[in-house]
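User: Please fill in residues for this 482-position structure.
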């Protein structure tokens, strides 16, 4: 199958970086990009008109948990006081005696909804650090069905986090020390890495810095090397975690990770916002940025999630200047990687009080080649001959933008994943006119609403204090009694 995309503003590749090709033409043959230029005469089975639109490399979203909006919705307001702004614990640290394995259909729905949401918003590649526990062949089937590219294996950890009946949370060593989890992840990668023409890729997911003992991290590094896959770990994501590691190992989190050997060019650290020297931490900054830069590890920066917790990475520009590699992720909903570029830019400017900081080119690079490099993939994140045919077509002729002078500046300044019209992965159109070419969008929404409502309605049964969703997140306005 040959597809030609004509007339768009193509974000091509000069050999050294992205470059703009006005009124361009991209020829796709099979799963790869054949040519990029202005010649529109090459024969094709299908021609897509992209006039007035950007033809962009598909974005790489380095942080998509394959689950419904149920837990994310609870991050805010009341629970901020409970957990030092680490309030994902409101759903991530359950009462031990109330831990329940979610039913398989709910897990499958969460996976499908999140992976589709990220894809629909323009991320042709996602890194999934873990959603609900469940059957793994089902997971692979869902990736196959939706059509995106996913790096995944089930997460594991040596210590769990629970909340007691007084609302205090605590870490507890697992009896199995997380080893069966690591084994399961290795088996998943051996079995499914490369499935669906390579759209399923393995990555090891030791869950969080403070829930994985050093020996588990060392074993993970050895396993990743043997399997030839990257590693993701959550670290530097909140103050609670920083204090836990400081209290246990007498080191800030980056030094702790460096000592375990997990930092390296194929490691992605989700968040990495809280370091020594951060304005919210009474601990001096040491060589942390230098350690990150020297190791070649990539920070999977999720600016909106941090902003929601009222803190920021300090800062996108300072990390870049120190030579730290950065990719972008969304973490919580909305899984909108286009808007995430704007958050990265604006928040860095706020932190540095520098109106000309965090340039559109830098955040665009982070959301494309930054993520691709982190995953060890030179053939993703760019529109160049020989690269994978993963690209998105974004409509700029909407009133959101006004007249556009420079497409990338406009996209970063005004854009939204909602403007993504067409998504092509592996040479196949998987989203067209903003809708899946493979599944029924309305049906998925209806199922997700039903599933999330059921979980929210029953929330009090699992909360340590029996709180309802409305007690955790008070409604914006009162509801009229009818
Ligand atoms: Zn996460």
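Assistant: Residues filled in for all 482 positions:
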């Amino acid at each position: 199958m040959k597809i030609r995309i004509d007339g768009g503003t193509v974000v091509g590749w000069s050999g050294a970086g992205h470059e703009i090709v006005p009124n361009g033409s991209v020829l796709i043959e099979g799963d790869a990009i054949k040519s990029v230029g202005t010649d529109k005469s090459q024969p094709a089975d299908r021609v897509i008109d992209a006039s007035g639109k950007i033809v962009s490399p598909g974005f790489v979203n380095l942080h998509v948990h394959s689950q419904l909006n149920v837990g994310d919705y609870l991050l805010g307001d009341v629970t901020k006081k409970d957990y030092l702004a680490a309030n994902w614990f409101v759903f991530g640290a359950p009462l031990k005696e109330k831990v329940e394995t979610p039913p398989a259909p709910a897990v499958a729905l969460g996976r499908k909804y999140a992976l589709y949401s990220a894809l629909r918003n323009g991320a042709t590649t996602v890194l999934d650090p873990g959603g609900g526990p469940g059957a793994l062949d089902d997971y692979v089937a869902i990736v196959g069905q939706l059509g995106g590219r996913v790096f995944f294996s089930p997460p594991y950890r040596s210590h769990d986090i629970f909340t007691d009946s007084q609302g205090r949370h605590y870490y507890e060593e697992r009896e199995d020390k997380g080893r069966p989890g690591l084994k399961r992840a290795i088996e998943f990668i051996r079995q499914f890495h490369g499935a669906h023409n390579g759209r399923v890729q393995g990555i090891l997911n030791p869950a969080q810095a403070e829930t994985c003992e050093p020996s588990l991290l060392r074993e993970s590094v050895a396993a990743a090397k043997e399997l030839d896959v990257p590693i993701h770990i959550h670290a530097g994501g909140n103050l609670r975690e920083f204090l836990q590691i400081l209290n246990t190992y007498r080191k800030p989190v980056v030094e702790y990770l460096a000592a375990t050997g997990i930092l390296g060019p194929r490691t992605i650290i989700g968040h990495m916002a809280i370091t020594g020297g951060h304005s919210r931490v009474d601990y001096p900054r040491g060589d942390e940025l230098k350690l990150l830069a020297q190791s070649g590890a990539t920070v999977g920066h999720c600016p909106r999630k941090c902003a929601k917790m009222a803190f920021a990475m300090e800062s996108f520009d300072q990390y870049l200047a120190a030579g730290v590699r950065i990719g972008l992720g969304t973490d919580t909903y909305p899984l909108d990687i286009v808007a995430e570029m704007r958050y990265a830019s604006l928040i860095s400017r706020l932190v540095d009080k520098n109106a000309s900081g965090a340039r559109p080119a830098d955040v665009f690079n982070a959301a494309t080649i930054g993520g691709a490099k982190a995953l060890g993939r030179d053939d993703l994140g760019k529109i160049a001959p020989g690269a994978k045919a993963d690209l998105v077509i974004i409509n700029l002729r909407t009133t959101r933008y006004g007249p556009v002078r420079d497409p990338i500046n406009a996209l970063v300044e005004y854009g939204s994943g909602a403007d993504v019209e067409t998504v092509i992965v592996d040479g196949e159109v998987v989203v067209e006119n903003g809708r899946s070419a493979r599944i029924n969008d309305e049906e998925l929404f209806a199922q997700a609403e039903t599933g999330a409502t059921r979980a929210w309605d029953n929330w009090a049964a699992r909360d340590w204090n029996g709180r309802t969703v409305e007690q955790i997140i008070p409604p914006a306005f009162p509801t009229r009694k009818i």
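For context: Residues 63, 65, 129, 234, 270, 331 surround zinc ion (CB under 6 Å).
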